[in-house]
Amino acid sequence: MRVLILTASYGSGHNEAARSLAAGFDARGVSVTVIDHFRELVHPLFERASRRLYLALLRRAPLVWGAAYALGDWLSSDSALAFGVTRLGAARLAGVLDALAPDAVVSVHATPAAAMASLVTDGRRSPPHTSVVTDFVAHSQWIARGVDRYCVADDEVGREFVARGIPRARVVVTGVPLRPEFVQPVDPEEARGRLGIRAGVPLVLAMAGSHGNVGRLPDVVNALGRLPRAVQGLVVAGHDAALAARLRGLAAGTPTRVLGHTADVRSLMAAADLLVTKAGGMTLAEAMATELPMLLYGSLPGQERRNERFAARAGVALVARSRRELGRLLERALAEPELLEHLRERIRRVRRPDAAQRIVDVVLDAGRVAS
Predict the structure, then answer these.
(1) Cβ atoms of 153 and 176 closer than 8 Å
(2) What domains lie within the chain, and their CATH numbers?
(3) Tell me: the pLDDT tens digits for 230-277?
(4) Element at 298 (helix H, strand E)
(5) pLDDT of the residue at 358
(6) At what angle do helices 44-60 and 62-74 cross, to 10 degrees?
(7) In sequence order, what are the residues at sequence separation of 6 or more whose Cβ sits closer than 8 angstroms to the Cβ of residue 27?
(8) Burial zone of 73 (CB within 10 Å; 0-12 exposed, 13-18 middle, 19+ buried)
(9) CA-based torsion, 232, 235, 236, 240: positive or negative
(10) DSSP state for residue 211 in the 8-state scheme
(11) Angle between helical axes of 110-121 and 90-100 (0-180°, round to 10)
């Protein structure tokens, strides 16, 4: 079989999902091609400019992004008010489909899914098309004509899609696809030893995605420094060297260490007792896979705030809305081991670390039926 995966470079979650699924298909002997929709099917300049605009909105005008996200949820994915944005790249996508002749298409971003739908609207026959939703929410821009199935993160998300008119048989609860290392157990003590973490002292891990400056990590470093009890901190600044330097200045003289970008998130999560993070969909899924309790802080308007609401309702995370709440909840979580264990128990009920394998199975089964 041949599988085409369509992704987009907005945040790291979509591409992480694409890579995870590609590895899963490759392990099954399937020929897989991954294409970045905006970079390869629209134009590299458009991809760079639109990604910079997206990140600028998140940093400087997050409320504007939140309003745009809410508006998008009121519009259908083929709405005329989108001014043809969802058809961008459709002509080149048709050429890719002709050249590759895939037996199945998997979208891990809403825009290429809508572009596929536009080809169906124009009367083109397409192979079975699966959309993999990488957040813990349902959103109208994911719903498009010609999508044969939706792989979603949780039962609650599945119910939301059904409530929006998608037949239940087309909604599959799989979880969010993760890298293979998140399926394998990691010994916490070994992970702590490799990281040079002292035994017997709680470790708080703080992250804000690959672009740390769209979070509120300085608040976290300050809160860790004010805690009355002994605690160790690991703060991941991502690709932002200037932010890392600022955080190291704030952490000077405290047991908090600041890291730049790291690929070994699995070991960091295995070593930690608590994760402080904004509610990105991939980060939530990775933390749940490792049974790591979360304190959510600095989540951006839009999908992250809705991910945050999911986590609060599911009981897998604490939520701080202010610096004062952040300090209070940090102190409480570290003082009450039974609270952290309660969060872990709730996580065990909803975690799906094998999501990538489940999605591969769904896609291959559908492809065999179609052939």
Answers:
(1) yes
(2) 2-180+353-370 (3.40.50.2000), 185-350 (3.40.50.2000)
(3) 899 999 998 888 999 999 999 998 999 999 888 889 999 999 999 999
(4) none
(5) 96
(6) 110
(7) none
(8) middle
(9) negative
(10) B
(11) 80
